[in-house]
Amino acid sequence: MTEIFKGSFTQQEPIPEAGIDAALAVLRHGRLHRYNTIAEEISETALLEQEFAASVGAKYCLAVASGGYAMATALRAVGVKPGDPVLSNAFTLAPVPGAIAAVGGRPVFVGVTEALTIDLDDLAQKADAAKVLLLSHMRGHICDMDRLMQICDAAGITVIEDCAHTMGAAWNEVPSGRHGAVGCYSCQTYKHVNSGEGGFLVTDAAEIAARAVILSGSYMLFERHLAAPPKEAFEQIRYETPNISGRMDNLRAAILRPQVADLATQCARWNERYSCLEQGLRDTPGLTVIDRPEQETIVGSSIQFLLLDWPARDVRDVVARCAARGVELKWFGGAKPVGFTSRYDSWRYADTPAMPDTDRVLAGIVDMRVPLTFSLQDCALIARIIRAEVSAVFQDQSTAAE
Ligand SMILES: *Cc1c(COP(=O)(O)O)cnc(C)c1O
């Protein structure tokens, strides 16, 4: 009997009851704007920032409208100007080069390794090409952050971390987002906390934080923040910094606060699912599992494997055969961008020379979301399906080669 998976790859869990109650309270009093407070009231947004800052051990936190907005704001706040080059990953999602483009910057892409992390040799070579690196921990894979920071510190490069896939993850016990000057996170539905849209920016640098607060649209109400620098930090900055509105609102903040409090539990649940999938896929002929370094604390909200050096039509065949059995895989090797997957050469505004080593890895990356609505049994079944279909196509490949 051929097993078929019937679950949904895009179904989230409901918002926790505490979040629903808090959201209803905000709807009832009507003060949704973060600065719309009465008397001694502290807004949900200010509380959320304080709680998120504490959760990652950051001095300052700003909640904003999206992860993409957090990244663009971070780039502006560290001083990126129109025309400036900004280093970033060739393997990432479109909002990352998009944030660079949003500030008029010019993305300079750094390659990807078979570990799916930024190629640090390539980074070292390109280190004098830019003063800022927007580092994407794409699909949750964290590179050797100690070596990355050495390279960047030596070259005077400011690091902004895109932690859209690593909220709750760490390298050498330092939370993702806390190695560079600024960490950016997304609270969009497909990430680790869900308010539909939303994002955070964290930093220990008072000047960057103050600029970000003004940029986000605080007007002169920055004293109503609980995780912003003291008012002296705004003295000059408030005159020099434009308002580019992108605030978080109290309704989203109310939904998010219980999720931030619950993040560690949710991460552990993701990791149970991830390890079940990984075990099921290990030692499949032709398939390379991505081994995770021991310094990395992962959040397995998605899983990747490589069909390295496979002919494109065979990878397509695997994706189609798995889809026929209810398993949705995404392939980063397609010539045209599809759904969420696009590649550095799809972002033609950046005008990037070909990167053959990166192309080889991208051509082999197969990706799967792991929603928490999957049970461990679901994960075991999905792994059996992928294993069977990869093995079948690989078998034909070897037979054809004989
Ligand atoms: C989703 C995502 C973002 C941006 O998040 P939005 O909140 O959708 O703007 C940034 N980087 C990566 C890698 C992402 O997947």
TrEMBL record:
Q: Which PANTHER family match?
A: DTDP-4-AMINO-4,6-DIDEOXYGALACTOSE TRANSAMINASE, TRANSAMINASE
Q: Which GO terms describe its biological process?
A: polysaccharide biosynthetic process
Protein name, per record: Aminotransferase class I/II-fold pyridoxal phosphate-dependent enzyme
Question: Magnesium among the record's keywords?
Answer: no
Q: Which UniProt keywords apply?
A: Aminotransferase, Pyridoxal phosphate, Transferase
> Can you tell which superkingdom this protein's organism belongs to?
Bacteria
Q: InterPro entries attached here?
A: DegT/StrS_aminotransferase
Which family does the similarity line name? Belongs to the DegT/DnrJ/EryC1 family.
Q: Secretion signal: which residues? A: none
GO terms assigned for molecular function: pyridoxal phosphate binding; transaminase activity
